[in-house]
Write a structure and sequence with these properties.
The chain is of the alpha/beta class and 766 residues long. Among the domains are: 86 residues, Alpha-Beta Plaits (2-Layer Sandwich); 85 residues, Alpha-Beta Complex (DHBP synthase); 183 residues, DHBP synthase, CATH 3.90.870. The strands form six sheets. It has a nine-stranded mixed beta sheet, with helices on both faces. A seven-stranded mixed beta sheet has the order 27-28-24-23-22-29-30, with helices on both faces. Strands 4-1-3-2-5 form a five-stranded mixed beta sheet. It is globular. The N terminus is likely disordered.
C-alpha cells in the first residue's frame, strides 16, 4: 500500500500498550502502520511496555488504533491498550525513539522457535546466513534466556558482547526489515560461533563442528549440545546401544527420555498425533508433547520403558535443524544433568558436571543468562494439560482476574519446585527449578527469585510457603524476614486450580487434592483429600483412611512398604501369611521389621496418601517393589491398566466429620484377584475404575450436605490421564462442573501459584 498523502494535523493521541510487546517486532510494526497512514509522532519502549504518540487527522488516528489492536505482529500479545488525547504538536514525521527506563511493568517474551523465514534462509545455499546456527529475527529466537534486564534492548542481553557488522547493523536500523531491532541479530561475520570440545572440555579441531557431531552421533557417541537454556545430552534414538549407554552413564535406569524428531513426518513414524497435539508440537513454543506410541513403535524400548507414551518435540533452534540428516532422523534429547542436579548451562562448569557422560560437547560463545529446561505437556479433552511449564512459556504471567495492591512471593514446595511472584493482576510463575534437595538446586532457586524480582521490579509484601517447615523453600521463606503466609499443601493445590481456571465466582468449591505427600494440620501426611475451599480458607470434608507410612520418605522409594501397611490394616497379624509372590521377594526379616515399626508407630507417621495407595497396589500386582524415579510405580500402574476393563473395586465409607474413605476392601479384592491369577492389566483397570467411582460418590455425598456443585481436581495424582478420563465425564454426568489445570501443572510445579492466590486473598482480608 502506497503511503498516504500527509494532511494537516488536527489531533494527537498517546497510546500505552501493555503485554508481550518488546522483542517481537512491535515498534517497526507501529512505525510502518503509522507511515502508511501518513501520521506523525513516535514509538518507544519503556519499563511498562510501549508508548505510541500519533498525530494527524482524527479519522486516520482511529484507523491506526483499530488496525493496531486487530492485527499486531504475530509474536506479540496485547493485554491492554489505553489512550489519552493530547494537544497537536505539529509533528508530521513518525520516528522510533530510544528506549527509556522506569518501573518494570512490561512482559518479557519467552524464547521462540525458529520461524519459517529464518529456516528458509538457514537452508538456502545462496543466503549469507546459510547454515548459521544463530540466525533469528523479530519473530523468533532467544529472549528470556539471554535477558539480563529491561527494557529488552541489546545492551541488556548476553548479545551485548557481539558488535554487529555493517550488514547486520543495516538490518537492525531498517524499519522495513524483519530484523529491525531484533536484539539477538547476528551473522557468521559478527555473531556467536560454535566450538567442539572433547570429554575433558578441551578444543577439538573441526572445520565443521556440526558435521563432526553428526558423525559422532551416527557412531553411537553421546554429545552434550548447548541449547537455549542449557545443555542437552543427545544420542541416536534409533540405536539401542547408544540409548543404553546414555542410561548407564547418567544413572537413569527407567525414567523416560525425551526425543527430538527431524520433522512432523518423522514424528508420525513413531507416535499418533492428533490435531491439537500437532498444534502444540509445531507452535512457536515447541514443548515436549506426550504422544501415544505406535504399536510397534520401532524405537528402543529403553527410551520409555513400560510406557505407552513418547515425549516428543521438534527442533526449535537453527542448531537443532542442522543436526539432522537422512541418517539421523530422531535423537534422544534429554536434560544435561546428573540425577537430582539442575541442568548444566555454564560453559566453565559443564564439562565437570557432565564428566563421564558426554563424549563430546557442541558448544558456543553466547552466554546463557538463565537456565531453563524444556516444557513438557500433553492434551486432555482437546486442550493443553501441562506437566512441566518452562521454556517457551515462562515468563508469561497467569492473569489473576483482578488487580491486588500488594505483591507476594510464593516459594512452592520441595519437589518439582517453582516459585511465583505477583504484581497487580499478574502472577509470574517461574520456570521449572527441580527438586529442592541439594545446594545446587537451591542456588538455582535463589538466583531465579532474584532475577524475577529485578526483571519485574517486584517488592513483595509477604512470602507464602508450605506448612512443612523443613523444606528448603520454607527455610528460604523464613529467612527473608517478610511476613509469612503459611498455606497447607492441599489447600494450595486446589487454590492453584482456581487461579489457573480464572475462577472468581462467589461461594466455595469442592477441591479433590490427590498426591503423594503433604503435611496436614494434624501432623499426619495427607494426600487423599476432599476440601471445601475458597481462596482464603479450607475445611477438610473427607479423606482416605489413615494407615502407617513405614519408613517415612523411604516408603515412596519402596512401594512394598505401603503394600504391607495396607495388608496389616486388613489382616492384622496375618499380613505376612498372604500368598503374594511379589512380597515374597522381600527378605522375611525386612518385612517383619517394617510391620513391627508400623505397629509401634516408629518412623511410621499416619498417611491418607492416594499416591502411596497406588504404590501399594503396584507392589501387590507384582509390578514394582522399588522405584528409580518419583511416582514410577503409579505411572507404570496407569500404563498397565486395561482400557477395556469394566469392573470396579469398591471402597467403604465411614460416616463422620470428616467422612473417611476406607481402601481396605479394595486391597482385599486386589489380593483375591492376584491369588486367583487375574491378569494384572485387569486388576489395574479395576483399581482405576473404583477410584474414579469413589471420587464421584464422595462428591455426591458431600453435595447432599449442601456441598458445592463445582469440583476442582488438583495434585500430582491427576497427572494420571486414565484416571481423569474416567473421573471427569462421570462427575459431569452427576451434574458437577469440573475445573482442571490448563496453564500450570497439576503437580507441585503449580503449587506456588496456589500459595500466592491464598496469600493475596488473606492479605486482602486483613
Amino acid at each position: 500500500m502506497a503511503p498516504l498523502k500527509a494532511e494537516a494535523a488536527t489531533g494527537r493521541r498517546r497510546l500505552r500498550v501493555e503485554g508481550v510487546v518488546q522483542g517481537v517486532g512491535f515498534r517497526p510494526h507501529v512505525y510502518n502502520l503509522a507511515s502508511r497512514l501518513g501520521l506523525g509522532g513516535f514509538v518507544l519502549n519503556d519499563g511498562a511496555g510501549v508508548v505510541v504518540e500519533v498525530e494527524g487527522p482524527p479519522a486516520r488516528i482511529e484507523e491506526f488504533v483499530t488496525q493496531l489492536k486487530a492485527a499486531p505482529p504475530p509474536r506479540a500479545h496485547l493485554e491492554r491498550v489505553t489512550a489519552e488525547e493530547l494537544a497537536a504538536a505539529g509533528e508530521a514525521a513518525f520516528a522510533i525513539r530510544e528506549s527509556v527506563g522506569g518501573e518494570a511493568e512490561t512482559l518479557v517474551s519467552p524464547d521462540l522457535a525458529i520461524c519459517g523465514d529464518c529456516l528458509d534462509e538457514l537452508l538456502a545455499p545462496a543466503d549469507r546466513r546459510h547454515r548459521y546456527a544463530f540466525l533469528n529475527c523479530t519473530n523468533c529466537g532467544p529472549r528470556f534466556t539471554i535477558i539480563r534486564g529491561v527494557p529488552y534492548d541489546r545492551p541488556k542481553t548476553t548479545m551485548a558482547a557481539f558488535a554487529m557488522c555493517e550488514a547486520c547493523q543495516g538490518e537492525y536500523d531498517d524499519p522495513a526489515n524483519r530484523r529491525f531491532h531484533a536484539q539477538p541479530n547476528a551473522c557468521p561475520a559478527c555473531g556467536p560461533r560454535l566450538a567442539l570440545w572433547d570429554a575433558a572440555g578441551e578444543p577439538v579441531e573441526a572445520p565443521d563442528p556440526v558435521a563432526a557431531v553428526q558423525q559422532y552421533l551416527f557412531d553411537g557417541e553421546i554429545v552434550a549440545v548447548k541449547g537455549l537454556g542449557g545443555y542437552h545430552l543427545a544420542c541416536d534414538a534409533s540405536s539401542a546401544e547408544a540409548v543404553e549407554k546414555l542410561r548407564a552413564r547418567k544413572y537413569r535406569e527407567d525414567k523416560p527420555f525425551a526425543v527430538m524428531a527431524w520433522d512432523v513426518a518423522v514424528a508420525r513414524l513413531y507416535a499418533e498425533i492428533e490435531e491439537e497435539e500437532l498444534a502444540l508440537l509445531t507452535s512457536e513454543r515447541r514443548p515436549i508433547v506426550l504422544l501415544r506410541k505406535h504399536e510397534p513403535c520401532h524405537l528402543p524400548e529403553a527410551i520409555a520403558p513400560r510406557n505407552r507414551y513418547l515425549g516428543l518435540m521438534l527442533p526449535y533452534t537453527p542448531l537443532h535443524h542442522l543436526l539432522f540428516d537422512d541418517d539421523l532422523e530422531i535423537l534422544v534429547m534429554t536434560s544435561g544433568n546428573r540425577a537430582d542436579e539442575p541442568i548444566a548451562y555454564r560453559d566453565d562448569v559443564a564439562p565437570r558436571h557432565l564428566a563421564g557422560i558426554a563424549d563430546y560437547f557442541l558448544t558456543h560463545d553466547r552466554l546463557i543468562a538463565r537456565r531453563v529446561d524444556d516444557t513438557v505437556t500433553r492434551v486432555f479433552r482437546g486442550a493443553e494439560y501441562p506437566i512441566r511449564r518452562s521454556r517457551g512459556y515462562v515468563p508469561l504471567p497467569i492473569e489473576l482476574g483482578r488487580s491486588y495492591e500488594r505483591s507476594v512471593l510464593a516459594v512452592g514446595a520441595e519437589l518439582k519446585n517453582t516459585f511465583c511472584l505477583t504484581k497487580g493482576s499478574r502472577a509470574f510463575v517461574s520456570h521449572h527449578i527441580g527438586d529442592l534437595e541439594n545446594e545446587a538446586t537451591l542456588e538455582a532457586f535463589e538466583e531465579g527469585v532474584a532475577h524475577f524480582r529485578e526483571m519485574f521490579d517486584v517488592a513483595p509484601a509477604a512470602v507464602a510457603r508450605d506448612l512443612h517447615p523443613d523444606y528448603l523453600a520454607s527455610r528460604y521463606a523464613q529467612a527473608t524476614g517478610l511476613p509469612e503466609v503459611v498455606v497447607q499443601h492441599h489447600h494450595g493445590h486446589v487454590a492453584s486450580v482456581l487461579a489457573d481456571a480464572g475462577y472468581e465466582e462467589e461461594g466455595k468449591v469442592l477441591g479433590v487434592a490427590f498426591d503423594g505427600a503433604g503435611l496436614g494440620e494434624d501432623g499426619a501426611i495427607w494426600g487423599g483429600e476432599f476440601l471445601i475451599v475458597d481462596r482464603r480458607e479450607y475445611e477438610r470434608a473427607a479423606h482416605l483412611k489413615y494407615v502407617p507410612l513405614p519408613g517415612g520418605d523411604q516408603a515412596a522409594r519402596e512401594p512394598w512398604r505401603m503394600a504391607l501397611s495396607w495388608l496389616r490394616e486388613l489382616y492384622g497379624d496375618d499380613a505376612l501369611r498372604q500368598p503374594l509372590p511379589a512380597l515374597a521377594e522381600i527378605p522375611a526379616r525386612r518385612r517383619e521389621l517394617v510391620l513391627e515399626a508400623a505397629a509401634r508407630g516408629v518412623n511410621s507417621p499416619p498417611t491418607s496418601s492416594i499416591g502411596r495407595l497406588f504404590d501399594a497396589v503396584a507392589s501387590l500386582v507384582g509390578l514394582r517393589n522399588a522405584v528409580n524415579y518419583e511416582g514410577q510405580a503409579a505411572i507404570e500402574l496407569e500404563q498397565l491398566a486395561s482400557p477395556d476393563e469394566e469392573e470396579a473395586y469398591e471402597f467403604a465409607y465411614e460416616e463422620g466429620e470428616p467422612l473417611v474413605i476406607d481402601a481396605a476392601p479394595v486391597i482385599a479384592a486386589v489380593v483375591a484377584d492376584v491369588v486367583a491369577g487375574t491378569a494384572p492389566e485387569a486388576i489395574a483397570g479395576r483399581f482405576h475404575n473404583g477410584l474414579a467411582a469413589a471420587i464421584v460418590a464422595v462428591a455426591s455425598a458431600l453435595r447432599e450436605k449442601s456441598g458445592p456443585e463445582v469440583v476442582a481436581l488438583g495434585g500430582g495424582v491427576f497427572q494420571n490421564v486414565t484416571l481423569l478420563e474416567k473421573t471427569v465425564p462421570a462427575l459431569e454426568t452427576a451434574g458437577f462442573r469440573v475445573l482442571l489445570h490448563r496453564q500450570v501443572p497439576t503437580n507441585d510445579g503449580g503449587l506456588s501459584l496456589g500459595q500466592a492466590a491464598v496469600a493475596l486473598a488473606r492479605l486482602e482480608g486483613e
